[in-house]
Write a structure and sequence with these properties.
This protein has 479 residues and is mainly beta. It has 2 domains: 134 residues, no CATH class; 294 residues, Alpha-Beta Complex (paralog of FGE (formylglycine-generating enzyme)). It is built from 4 helices and 17 strands. The protein has a 4-stranded mixed sheet with strand order 3-4-5-6, with no helix packed on it. Strand 5 and strand 6 form a beta hairpin. The longest helix is centred in the middle third of the chain and has 10 residues.
Amino acid sequence: MWYRNSFLLLVEGSVVLAWVGGCRLGESPDDFSKGTGEPKEAGPQGGFGGSGASNDSIRCEKTPTGCEPFGGHGERLFGCCDGDLRWWCEPVEGIWTLRSEDCGQKGLNCGYDAKEAMLRCVSGAGGAGGATGGASGATGGAGGATGGAGGATGGAGGATGGAGGATGGSGGSTIYGVPGPSCEGMTGKECQGKNCCSSILVPGGVFPMGRSENGSDACSVGMQYCKTDEQPEHDVTVSDFYLDEFEVTVGRFRKFVDQFDGTLPSDGAGEHPLIPGTGWHSTWNHLMPSSKADWQSHLKCDPVYPTWRDTKGDTEQHPINCVSWFDAFAFCVWDGGRLPTEAEWEYAAVGGIDNRLYPWGSVEPSPQLAVFDCQYDGKTGCSFADIAKVGSKPAGAGRWGHKDLAGNMVEWVLDVYDEGWYSAEGNKCNNCASFSEGESSVCRGGCWSYVEPSWLRGAVRLSFSSVHGLFPVGFRCAR
């Protein structure tokens, strides 16, 4: 059976069953299997909505009253309560805060969307493991013999089934804190004690994209980098998505290069689920390296500043740089993700409706908050030592916990650069992206070598040639 008064908690890649309403919080998956005869929770590869998860396993009968009891694990908490109320915890000004959305008011149900691999408002009851998913297979345990989480008629257990089906399937493999193939074989502690593949839910909403004249994100007197392509400010709608907590590291990219056999994404791969036509084009294939040896040469775009090493060294937790837009796109597809749109990236960087000037708020950038101005090594002048390992400035994290959204590396996003996008098609944006033909792609976030603090603002738009890798530029993936 599954416990109805419970929700799932992911702690450093392990799934833990937690109790609502003053009962105990499990310390490990084994707490719920030893000597009880109950099914053991899915392990680190299962993740939320992974093998054996069901709508029952993410439901509780009463919405939690706060996030504080769960301390530093608040970002791992979310569930469905009080009918169809979707809830989650997120950091607001450093305090874990309870958020919720009433799916019932929209004529929807709170459940796990297996197609998009996230908890959200869905049609019907949804299904965590999909039609063929199950932790224990045909013999019972967590999964029933024939049913699926959604079942035939849309109930939490379905018409005949339990939490899983007969033949097994995870319902999503690269979701919320669960390693993609780029983290296979890692300990899960490499990036500031966390999994380098950690991916954080960004709850969707409407926000004012771009720069205002007089609002919280306006350029103040003395700011030197405030371009007209950041205006006009305009309302944009973004749906729920997951965004990597950290910039993609050298160690993660090495897994991609090591397995590379010349196979590139298929046409349409990496397409945004709500923006048709934004997937890979086979006409791009000739722009990519064709062998591992080509990659090793390709990733050395500068005599001094590339983070790539042909053999493992002390840069494995540094952000990869010298990658082109096409390289970043192909990696994200291979790793089970995609490039975030420009709107999604800014939404995460400014905290959505908070519309922050910088990811952390309105305080001017400093060496305590961001890696910029060649200050990281504490010495005068720029050197390779001014490039930091990912997540080195946790005090500068964004609203939802993403690191290095300002500083360390500028990041590729999905969009082709269009200086007038905000005044044209992009002015009325509901999950949109600029994806017409163009030679330059958009980059976001400040760089380790940028001197002027205003470059680190969340609204700043940059562009570089899509085909060239540069030493200030890295990326992260959305899911």
